TrEMBL record:
InterPro entries, sorted: PTrfase/Anion_transptr (IPR016152), PTS_EIIA_type-2_dom (IPR002178), PTS_SugarTrans_NitroReg (IPR051541)
Protein's name in the database: Nitrogen regulatory IIA protein
Molecular function as annotated in GO: protein kinase activator activity
SUPFAM superfamilies hit by this protein: Phoshotransferase/anion transport protein
Residues annotated as domain PTS EIIA type-2: 6-154
Organism of this sequence: Thermogutta terrifontis
One Pfam family recorded for the sequence: PTS_EIIA_2
Highest taxon above the source species: Bacteria
Lineage: Bacteria, Pseudomonadati, Planctomycetota, Planctomycetia, Pirellulales
Coiled-coil boundaries: none
Length: 267
């Protein structure tokens, strides 16, 4: 279950907006995947996912759904996890509202790995004795802990490397950012480059966001210690970290907000 572990570790567990239906939830999760900068530009994950949903049932039962998009290029198996506190009507076979949606991007070279991971997920869901606690959760940190417990309960089915990674995975608290209007959602990839001999460099296509982050004192320290930074209407989530020579570090981040008058503009 490496892809699910990666999603939990890298901040890709998202609370879905209250009142969001199935299509709105799938579009939001697809946009988050599309914003990953390592993926090709112009990739229409939303279209691929919605097209598949018209022909296949992607629910796994017990409040879990697993939509995916297959692409022809090679790369890493990626996923993003959406949590709905009140459940979404998903037309599941067991008629249960869906509270967890795990959306996968499946490159050509990862199709067998994807099938193995989904198979393990389905078995873990059926055998996990505390599944009802996930459905009853009302706080995103509780959901994250329960998902880690689910993976732990499947330790006999996963390989030793995955078990070791899960044991090492810390459980920092996640401060939720309510998202109420999907039409106003902004998701921006951000690179933060820091070093001992220069001021932090912000790389993003959103000019207003860049100007704002350049004024934030201690931004790199918060990203390093907490894995995220939230203020000024933006939530900055660290996805990965690369360490280079001479003490230089690059953080690959995702910035999420909703467009409001008091938020930094693009101009």
């Amino acid at each position: 279950m490496d892809s699910l572990l990666d999603a939990l570790q890298e901040g890709r567990l998202i609370e879905l907006p209250e009142g969001a239906d199935k299509i709105a939830a799938l579009r939001l999760l697809a946009r988050i995947l599309e914003a990953i900068p390592t993926l090709p530009a112009g990739l229409d994950i939303e279209g691929l996912v919605l097209e598949r949903e018209r022909t296949a049932d992607t629910s796994l039962g017990k409040g879990w759904a697993c939509p995916h998009a297959r692409v022809s290029f090679e790369g890493d198996l990626l996923c993003v996890v959406g949590w709905s506190p009140h459940g979404i009507q998903y037309n599941a076979k067991d008629q249960a509202p869906v509270t967890i949606i795990t959306m996968y991007l499946v490159p050509e070279n990862q199709r067998n790995q994807y099938l193995r991971e989904v198979s393990l997920l389905a078995k873990a869901i059926q055998n996990y004795p505390g599944w009802e606690k996930i459905n009853e959760a009302r706080e995103i940190n509780e959901v994250r802990d329960r998902l880690l417990d689910l993976i732990s309960s499947a330790k006999e089915m996963v390989g030793p490397d995955s078990r070791a990674r899960m044991i090492r995975l810390q459980r920092p608290r996640i401060e939720p950012t309510p998202i109420t209007d999907l039409s106003n959602l902004i998701i921006e990839p951000v690179m933060l480059v820091v070093g001992p001999d220069f001021k932090p460099i912000i790389l993003t296509q959103h000019a207003g966001l860049a100007r704002y982050l350049e004024t934030v004192a201690g931004l790199a320290e918060r990203i390093e210690t907490d894995g995220y930074f939230q203020n000024g209407g933006w939530r900055i989530i660290r996805r990965s970290k690369m360490v280079y020579q001479n003490g230089r570090v690059m953080y690959d981040c995702l910035a999420i907000t909703t467009r409001r008058k008091d938020f930094p503009s693009e101009s």
